[in-house]
Amino acid sequence: MEGSLEKRLYDAAAEGNTIALQELLEQDKFLLDRVSLTSPNKSTPLHVATIKGYLDFVLQILNHNPHLAQRFDSQQSSPLHIASAEGYLEIVKILLPDAPHMCMSRDCQGRNPLHLAAMRGHVEILKALISEAPHAAREKADRDQTVLHLCVKHGQLEALKILAPKLNDLINAKDADGDTLLHMAVAVKQTEIIRYLVGSTEIDLNVRNSNGQKAIDILKESQPEVDYIQIRNILRRVRRIDTKARTQTQRVMKWLIEKGNAIMVVAVLIATVAFQAGVSPAGGIWQENSTQYSHARAGEAVMAYTHPEAYRNFVRSNTIVQAPEASRSIQKHIGATCHSGTDYLWFAVMGILLIGSIVKWLKEKRTIERRLSLRISTSIATSQESV
């Protein structure tokens, strides 16, 4: 009797007969639990109904026993694997809430449900699986093949267009043979995929596989056909563009280096002159202690005592010129960039010192003008008294 119930259950699943399922469960409410353990091929009635795409039958089984969504058949495939491979979007949507972790499970060939959907080109299912488990897209199948490799291998351009922008860092990933997507696309002569890869992604044409071959080398070994000509033209055109871009970049870099060296010569010259002016200021230095200026000492600038205000302005200006130029020379030798934090710091220091010097000069100018005006007034008053 028990064996008869199990056979009738599998027959109902194969036919999608929900009425028969309900009658069987009324006779034995534990039938679904028991049959999933005793089936010789490990396939549950849920597997069978999913293969056939019987949505209502799947719903009814899950209502009675949602744990069946987590069972594997003899190929290590869950019902979610089967629904994803067969393109049953609605079944995928009702399976996900009961077994979301199945997105990461691998069948006997190392493929998760997202891999299978990509291989079959089921774009809407891909979107649903990525939304539920985005990390599943980064899992590799056997032989280190990414989901992008599987798209190329099975000629699924639309699936590739969905996945490539989300997995940009895997565009140049290699499989166990060292092949990138481009190697594989050239090997199987997927012309449209090649055109998409070289035109819309950051695929590297110069990567070599484990045999030391670039994609163009694989093409040269194949038999000349119509696809051969198209693929060769695509790769050659991209290589010419790439070579031209590299040449232009090299010219720009050479020009920048030459200009940078010229600027460094000027910077060193300015720094040298400023340094020389600092150690040998105008007016010279005291050779011995001064008797005229009691505080003057040998080795100190004469100008600091004879014209103290002018000397202070000279020191400020000299520092403004010398400090950043010296800093730039140091940066050149230690490899700092022209946009480093140190550079910006010196620009700020230069600005502060310059503003400070201008303000100081304006104040001193105003003071001198007042003194001069006072002297003129005093002189005029004295002249009038004398008269």
Automatic annotation (TrEMBL):
<dbReference type="Pfam" id="PF00023">
    <property type="entry name" value="Ank"/>
</dbReference>
<keyword id="KW-0040">ANK repeat</keyword>
<keyword id="KW-0812">Transmembrane</keyword>
<feature type="transmembrane region" description="Helical">
    <location>
        <begin position="344"/>
        <end position="362"/>
    </location>
</feature>
<dbReference type="InterPro" id="IPR036770">
    <property type="entry name" value="Ankyrin_rpt-contain_sf"/>
</dbReference>
<feature type="repeat" description="ANK">
    <location>
        <begin position="109"/>
        <end position="131"/>
    </location>
</feature>
<dbReference type="Pfam" id="PF13962">
    <property type="entry name" value="PGG"/>
</dbReference>
<keyword id="KW-1133">Transmembrane helix</keyword>
<protein>
    <recommendedName>
        <fullName>PGG domain-containing protein</fullName>
    </recommendedName>
</protein>
<feature type="transmembrane region" description="Helical">
    <location>
        <begin position="260"/>
        <end position="279"/>
    </location>
</feature>
<feature type="domain" description="PGG">
    <location>
        <begin position="254"/>
        <end position="320"/>
    </location>
</feature>
<keyword id="KW-0677">Repeat</keyword>
<dbReference type="InterPro" id="IPR026961">
    <property type="entry name" value="PGG_dom"/>
</dbReference>
<dbReference type="GO" id="GO:0005886">
    <property type="term" value="C:plasma membrane"/>
</dbReference>
<feature type="repeat" description="ANK">
    <location>
        <begin position="75"/>
        <end position="96"/>
    </location>
</feature>
<keyword id="KW-0472">Membrane</keyword>
<dbReference type="Pfam" id="PF12796">
    <property type="entry name" value="Ank_2"/>
</dbReference>
<dbReference type="InterPro" id="IPR002110">
    <property type="entry name" value="Ankyrin_rpt"/>
</dbReference>
